[in-house]
Specification:
Number of strands: 13
Shape: globular
CATH superfamily of the largest domain: P-loop containing nucleotide triphosphate hydrolases
Number of helices: 14
Helix content: 25-40%
Radius of gyration: 21 Å
Distance between the termini: 55 Å
CATH architecture of the largest domain: 3-Layer(aba) Sandwich
Largest sheet: 7 strands, mixed
Low-confidence stretches: none
Oligomer: single chain
Structural class: alpha/beta
Order of helices and strands: HEEEHHEEEHEHEEHEHEHHEEHHHHH
Length: about 350
Amino acid sequence: MNERLKRILLIGVQRGASDVHIVPTKYPTLRIDGNLSDLSEEGVLSSKDTETMLLSLIGDDNTQLQYFKKYKDIDFSFNIENKARIRANIYYQNNGIAGAFRIISFSVKTIEELNLPPILHEFAKKRQGLILITGPAGVGKSTTLAALVDEINHTRSAHIVTIEEPIEYIFLPDLSLISQREIPKDSPNWHRALRSALRQDPDVIMIGELRDATSIQIALTAAETGHLVLGTLHTNSASQTIDRILDVLPEAQKSQAKFQLASTLIGVISQRLVPRIKGGRIPACEILLATTAVKNLIRENKVYQIDLVIETSLDQGMITLERSLATLVNIGEISLETAIDYSLNIDRLKNLMG
């Protein structure tokens, strides 16, 4: 690895950055607590600087280099001086080659350490069905997913197969047997890896991202046939997650998929990472549990009523994003202004705040 790039990444680790950006004609840039800040002491990077720094990560691996030149971007991960794990995306852009680096802790944090709702402990106990972690990019979906997988790893004997692009957290097997597969290093594509997973005697299948109709259909089938399936989706709310799953499927499959989803869904965690008053960020989570009422709404194609069910089912463990935000305001973790910025329904939030 290029020494200048290593120094910049280690500064990011030292300063608690979640991401580091290397872009031609710009200063190296850190994202700390959601905000971008220039690393001006490193100077503005030229196109030649970024090319030298970033291609050093690919090195002499001709397969990776050919892939990068063909597709114009590449994902991979690596460790840096036993201080952190880095998920990298190197890509071409207008002024040359750029890179985005996500800094990942070596240790997998627990549900409590991440300030996630205790209901996730119940999710980890399930033996069959579908659990989805959703939200926009950069809100900690992979970290929440890892916490669930690691809780299973430490609490019961299971064969856990993960499918990731690239591998982020490295799990250390405890009570469970863990097979981590990386696309395209360990399997040429998602669809092949997912289909193969069903033949690898898994108890739990973790899918880094449900990205298209084929992966969603395989996940539903796996959950229906006796496996616990954990995955992520880029959606803004629990009800939008149900809509997205059904909308992306071909018309001929939608009817069957509604019944599969209704019979297999365990729950949806839709999360945001919200700036704290004292610094850092804390998750605000919407929780949807697949109760009989929710399953019926999915079967009857009345997904638009799910938001109301979440709002009126606090006693069953469900929670709206606005209630989660209001709780964080009331306990002094975030400001009211921040809650309003992150709310999807400001009137509901104001009603909860009185």
